[in-house]
Amino acid sequence: MREETVSWKYFKRDVVPFAAMVAVECTTVGSSTLFKAATLRGFSFYVFVLYSYVGATLVLLLLSLIFGRYFGLLDQLLLPCFKNMNLHILHMQVKKSSLFFKIFLLALLGLTSRVAGCKGIEYSSPTLSSAISNLTPAFTFMLAVFFRMEQVMLRSSATQAKIIGTIVSISGALVIVLYKGPKLLVAASFTSFESSWITGGLLLGLQFLLLSVWFILQTHIMEIYPEEIVVVFFYNLCAMLISATICLIVEKDLSSWQLKPGFALASVIYSGLFDTSLGSVIHTWGLHVKGPVYVSLFKPFSIAIAVAMAAIFLGDALHLGSVIGSVILSFGFYTVIWGKAREDAIKRVSDSEQSLLLPTHNTDDETLS
């Protein structure tokens, strides 16, 4: 009985989070692969982005209604408009309007990142997208230093690791983008298309740079209003409205809005249901259960997943430059993550030492008195 209890605890503590994180990476890469297959058949990436946000908004609305949290923020944002306005209510309304503006800005930033990413995949491949995504910790560190959210102590081993890892990560990304090299793995190509590797790589780099800014702004919003499902719902709702406006301007041909059975319909359903909504929920759960370092460790695995999926579903070839650059980039990625983990460990030890010293100090004072 005791062995079963220990086995069950191990299963919940280690096996389930591991399987969940692998599933999230497969889901993300699968969405990129389906999108690439759909665009190769003439599907507009503007329409894809819009329908993905529509699907995610509907799923998150359903989740919000089930958990009863949707109406709370909606009431806070809208109901004061219909009440007698005094100075206190006006002050509170300004604060809530500021929160809504920040969510709108988050949606604008996320939409721009999504469009840049989709266009980058259209020019290149999901494999390149998975490789460039490992730049996110390096970009986040650079932005945190730029906005003075992180202190740079050059004598600290943690800071040195993050600086070295950032430089190595960017070097690996440049190798992937600028050097393709000979083909190592050639698969049967199902479709023919012209790719612009450098243009795609630059767009994907812009995507994950904006995504790093998005993470910083999202963290700030969550400190103000710590309701994940509600914030993500309003984020998707605003992004859906903005993308709908863009689609009406760009895609004037109504035939491009049609979802025909095939890769186009599959990519929209898969992205809206699994990637944008449920994938975010699982990712948040992983952060809560295991922490950000554990979740980040699985990011380089997306490169191998992308290579396999691209070879099977798209017939993409694997180039030597992608392999060399991915190895360099992954090394830099893990160096940054190690530096962050080292910094957190030092901070925890310092906090625990301070908490242990305080009671001892008080006891000594009482003895002396």
Can you give a write-up of this model?
The chain is mostly helical. It has helices spanning 2-39, 45-67, 70-78, 87-123, 126-132, 136-146, 157-178, 197-224, 228-250, 263-290, 292-296, 301-314, 320-368; strands at 183-185, 318-319. Strands 1-2 form a two-stranded antiparallel sheet. The longest helix has 49 residues, at 320-368. It is globular and about 70 Å long. The protein starts with a helix and ends with a helix. It is found in: Membrane. It is a multi-pass membrane protein. Keywords: Membrane, Transmembrane, Transmembrane helix. Its main location: membrane.
Structural class: mainly alpha
Strand content: under 5%
By DSSP, the count of extended strands is: 2
Task: Using the CA coordinates, give the radius of gyration.
Answer: 23 Å
**Oligomerization category of the chains in this entry:** single chain
Major sheet strand order: 1-2
Low-confidence stretches: 77-94, 188-194, 361-369
Q: Overall mean pLDDT score?
A: 76
| Element-by-element helix/strand order | HHHHHHHEHHHHHEH
* Amino- and carboxy-terminal Cα gap: 55 Å
Q: What's the helical proportion of residues? A: over 70%
> Per the principal axes of the C-alpha atoms, what is the gross shape?
globular
Q: Provide a count of the helices.
A: 13
The largest pleated sheet is described as:
2 strands, antiparallel
